[in-house]
TrEMBL record:
Class in the EC hierarchy, top level: transferase
Membrane-traversing stretches: 129-153
Broad class of the protein's primary localization: membrane
Name this polypeptide is given: non-specific serine/threonine protein kinase
Domain Protein kinase: 186-485
Length: 506
């Protein structure tokens, strides 16, 4: 059973609950938000103004010690095979007029009639919520689906027109003054990391009745013109996206020559710091690595297919994958993301890359191994990209490289002794290992991975498909998800072929 309620501030609170066996019992309303990752921003404000979630039956607090935190389902979400043949007997519809669902993991961008909206949701076993928006009726129809089991995930179909202005930002982001962020970061004294466009600092901002830990990205002044374009990209893109595998933008500062972005704080650092730990005994578990690989893929599916405007990230690498409190993968740094119109698959203008993910820039590594890893990643993309427009398949290639790094817990390029030079380039070595039936060499000493050799081989095959020279041969990120989850069989991959790599190791 799926029940919903609307709180005073017109935020929808909704949840799935099991349908009573007699199919006639009353359903009580409980207040939570998203189905799998319930967020405070969606919860109800009590008289003391602190947001809280009341977890219903079959839900529990993510952190039992935090009564003001989020709720999670205690059941597995998915589709049962025997449900597909009798869907009309298993679903009921409840209509809530003038009610909106603020956020979603999935958005379908095309006009729908009310009946088509219902039919589309009824025909999808993963659909739990659909929203119908009509400019003529000026109303929103929410269809809450009552499912016979508690195995449901959130789904959304919504028509929305977004106006982008170079002089205004139409998002629900908080606008900070420079002085507020300077105080929040204690004078920008605690650096979290550096990127091509600026430095990220840790900070704490004051809300009405609480404090929130944040990451403040201060864009470089000497790149003001280009940083301004990145600034606008990030505001307009991240501010209108919401997915559990994306880092969320909370606010911004734009005054004079200063440009700053305020993100939610990710307490467990980057994927790079997790994977490339010098101590072999501290490798992340095989199970966690599999979860991270799937999380990153889901985030990219959202960017490529499901958000309001399609987004090519163009800079997918372990340094741009952050980890939240529960080690969920969160894709960050949309500064190089190039927006695509809904009827396009590629774009031609204005994209630059950082040393680490993009093709077509004549980098040559001649210093230490760390620098080599950064430079060569840019050149590992096929030479065809020198003349081919950047498109979503660039992210697929980069994901394939990251997947191999997750599997092996080593960088895509690594300094090796002369007798091990064949292992220096991870993509080449991985294909050789697969071809020779020796994928276990990629996880040498990792007993968890070695005990799951079938899954290991499948992941290596998926990665090889992703790094094919010809973008046409690469799967979409949605197909990657299907292969990772086992709903689509992974075919024998072709040889990637003619990957252009120019490097020297010193």
């Amino acid at each position: 059973m799926h029940s919903a309620t609307l709180q005073e501030e017109k935020h929808l609170a909704t949840l799935p609950v099991a349908r009573p066996n007699n199919k006639t019992g009353d359903t009580s309303l409980s207040i939570v938000s998203e189905l799998s990752d319930l967020r405070r921003s969606q919860s109800v404000s009590l008289p003391d103004k602190r947001p809280t979630c009341q977890c219903p039956k079959s839900y529990s607090l993510v952190n039992p010690d935090d009564p003001y935190g989020s709720c999670k389902p205690d059941f597995i979400q998915g589709c049962e095979e025997d449900e597909l043949s009798k869907r009309k007997d298993l679903y009921n519809f409840e209509v809530l007029i003038n009610t909106d669902w603020p956020f979603s993991d999935s958005v379908l961008q095309r006009p729908f009639t009310e009946e088509l909206c219902k039919e589309a949701c009824m025909g999808d076993c993963m659909c739990s919520v659909a929203i119908f928006s009509s400019a003529i009726l000026n109303a929103v129809l929410l269809v809450a689906i009552c499912f016979s089991t508690s195995m449901i995930v959130q789904y959304k179909k919504k028509l929305r027109r977004v106006s982008r202005s170079e002089t205004s930002v139409e998002t629900n982001l908080r606008c900070f003054t420079y002085e507020e962020l300077e105080e929040a970061t204690n004078g920008f004294d605690k650096e979290l990391g550096r990127g091509a466009f600026g430095i990220v600092y840790e900070g704490v901002v004051n809300n009405t009745c609480s404090e929130t830990r944040v990451a403040v990205k201060k864009l470089n002044n000497f790149l003001l013109d280009q940083a301004h374009r990145e600034f606008r990209n990030e505001l307009n893109v991240i501010g209108l996206t919401h997915h559990k595998n994306l880092v969320r933008l909370l606010g911004f500062c734009e005054g004079g020559s200063e440009r700053l972005l305020v993100y939610e704080y990710m307490s467990n650092g980057t994927l790079a710091s997790l994977l490339f730990n010098a101590d072999e005994k501290q490798k992340p578990s095989w199970k966690l690595r599999l979860e991270l690989a799937i999380g990153i893929a889901r985030g990219l599916v959202y960017l490529h297919e499901e958000c309001i405007t399609r987004i090519i990230h163009c800079d997918i690498k372990p340094q741009n994958i952050l980890l939240d409190d529960y080690f969920n993968a969160r894709i960050s740094d949309f500064g190089l993301a190039k927006l695509m119109n809904m009827n396009q698959s590629k774009t031609n203008t204005g994209i630059r890359g950082t040393k680490g993910s993009l093709a077509g820039f004549g980098f040559s590594a001649t210093s230490n191994a760390a620098a080599t890893s950064q430079f060569v990643r840019a050149e590992m993309l096929p030479t065809s990209h020198l003349v081919r427009p950047y498109e979503a398949q660039v992210d697929v290639y980069s994901y394939g490289v990251v997947l191999l790094e997750i599997i092996s817990c080593r960088r895509c390029v690594q300094e090796m002794e002369q007798e091990d030079e064949e292992k220096a380039i991870l993509t080449d070595w991985a294909y050789d290992c697969y071809k020779d039936g020796a994928v276990d060499a990629l996880v040498e000493g990792d007993n968890e991975a070695l005990d799951d050799k079938e899954k290991l081989e499948k992941l290596v095959m998926i990665a090889i498909w992703c790094v094919q020279e010809d973008p046409v041969l690469r799967p979409s990120m949605r197909n990657v998800i299907h292969m990772l989850e086992g709903t689509v069989e992974v075919q024998v991959p072709a040889y990637p072929s003619q990957i252009s790599i120019q490097y020297s190791l010193i």
